[in-house]
Amino acid sequence: MFEEFIDENLIKTESFIKIHSKEVYERFLLFCKHNGFVMNISNRSFYSQLEMLGIVKGEHGDRKYYWGWYLKKCKY
């Protein structure tokens, strides 16, 4: 399911592009709702799942971002 989320919602891009980790998690919740998945997953567990798939967060100041990723236009 996480791979499907990534394929539908994230695109690998230039390393200087960043997206706030909270935006990615919120999109995941929309993805689950749209597809009828009942997910009770915390944001920390979600971030760990992405990290296992090679999508690792970085920091900029006190905020966490995914560097080199871009959210595709939402269809939900």
Overview of this protein structure:
By secondary structure, this protein is α+β, with helices and mostly antiparallel strands. It contains three helices and five strands; from the N terminus they run αββααβββ. It has helices at 2-9, 21-35, 43-52, and strands at 10-12, 18-20, 57-60, 63-67, 69-71. It has a three-stranded antiparallel sheet. A two-stranded antiparallel sheet has the order 1-5. The chain starts with a helix and ends in a 5-residue tail after the last strand. The relative contact order is 0.30.
Describe the largest sheet. 3 strands, antiparallel
| Helix and strand sequence | HEEHHEEE
Residue stretches low in confidence (pLDDT < 50, at least 5 long) are none
Based on CA atoms alone, the radius of gyration comes out at 12 Å
DSSP strand content: 15-25%
Q: Average the pLDDT over all residues and give the rounded result.
A: 93
User: How are the strands ordered across the major sheet?
Assistant: 2-4-3
Distance between the termini: 16 Å
3D shape: globular
Number of helices: 3
Structural class designation: alpha+beta
Residues in helices, as a percent range: 40-55%
DSSP summary, beta strand count: 5
Brief overview:
The protein has 76 residues and is α+β, with helices and mostly antiparallel strands.
